[in-house]
Amino acid sequence: xxxxxxxxxxxxxxxxxxxxxxxxxxxxxxxxxxxxxxxxxxxxxxxxxxxxxxxxxxxxxxxxxxxxxxxxxxxxxxxxxxxxxxxxxxxxxxxxxxxxxxxxxxxxxxxxxxxxxxxxxxxxxxxxxxxxxxxxxxxxxxxxxxxxxxxxxxxxxxxxxxxxxxxxxxxxxxxxxxxxxxxxxxxxxxxxxxxxxxxxxxxxxxxxxxxxxxxxxxxxxxxxxxxxxxxxxxxxxxxxxxxxxxxxxxxxxxxxxxxxxxxxxxxxxxxxxxxxxxxxxxxxxxxxxxxxxxxxxxxxxxxxxxxxxxxxxxxxxxxxxxxxxxxxxxxxxxxxxxxxxxxxxxxxxxxxxxxxxxxxxxxxxxxxxxxxxxxxxxxxxxxxxxxxxxxxxxxxxxxxxxxxxxxxxxxxxxxxxxxxxxxxxxxxxxxxxxxxxxxxxxxxxxxxxxxxxxxxxxxxxxxxxxxxxxxxxxxxxxxxxxxxxxxxxxxxxxxxxx
Length: 498
Known about the structure:
Layout: H1 2-48, H2 53-57, H3 81-97, E1 102-105, H4 109-115, E2 130-135, E3 143-150, H5 154-158, E4 175-180, H6 186-193, H7 196-199, E5 202-205, H8 211-220, E6 223-224, H9 231-238, H10 242-265, H11 272-285, E7 289-297, E8 319-327, E9 330-331, E10 334-338, H12 348-367, H13 374-396, H14 399-403, E11 424-426, E12 433-437, E13 452-455, E14 458-461, E15 465-468, E16 471-474, E17 482-483
Helix pairs in contact: 3-9, 10-11, 12-13
């Protein structure tokens, strides 16, 4: 009997141990399943449960919520009179060098640059309004102004406040106003009023002048300088003054700050259009006019200027914002590609491409020095992207499948299929102005001191991902380009830190 009892006792121990193991297995299985289901829920919730559009399409914040941005550019003054006079003197010098009697422009970017008259101040219409700048007789370094305006608008024209040295003594400048009646030919009226030095010589017409205006001036008897718009005159505006660079710095810094504030307010499920509205609010709050830009989520960013759809933000998406605004007429241009999703939810191939684009941006900035051909800066950025795409393919072992091609020969790989636009453009009173950072032997532009450019390499893979990073910079007297966004940290630090 004792042996039987002993045998019964020992036979129960493995049963109890097995039960404990089974309980632990069931517990761990349930725990892992719960964690996995929770993870899937986080990924799928935005897709299967979309909150009403009205919730996402109304602004999340009032302008007062951006009050921390309001003072960033408040102390930056507009362009001073001394800068305008310096520009006018440079123009007079170029006119004399080219034996031209006058420079004629309409309200616009060059009208704003030389005479502080923009197309916003004087709306262009079928009625000619012209700014004529001629070398003064005394002193020979100064500019004289003539304004052609409709008779019924002449008093308004006199209120425009053209920046000149006013007074009666030597060195003062003059403005003549020529009016034309509705039943008169304005071009003939102007021709008869201009001095012989203009009518018997040649004139330079602004490169932005409308064709019917140019035709009217030629038809009245003026002779236009041959050879197109003189590069020497274009270079005046291309090389910025210290005051211009300060304005561009503050405008670009403010734009970066606005983007960062918008990032803090982004939520999964928001639409591109709702985000644009918040972005516009932030740009207004930071003190910039005409602020706004592109907002593209996920695969929509593979089209550099947008898809025309209104995608909702999903986990794992990159967010591309290409943003600009204006400060006293000077324009910002900043692009950030970033994410609000945790690292584990981002396709590692997308992350790798992001760092390739950043490397191209850094290489271009380092190469952008005085005396360098603009086309070579574009070339250097393109080479970095090409190498990055090739290395990326080796590491991931599926480059060709991901890039959407079955041709796996290195000879047929063209970086321009993925880095589809030029590296950059000049920036100042216009968002895009000369000179340009673009490849090709036809681009003979050479970087000069105080040229200002955008630096915006990108990689775009259709239906998958688009990444672009953009910061503007100026060319110093010596050394590499200096970021206009340096005061707020400069380049993006990571895909989570724009």
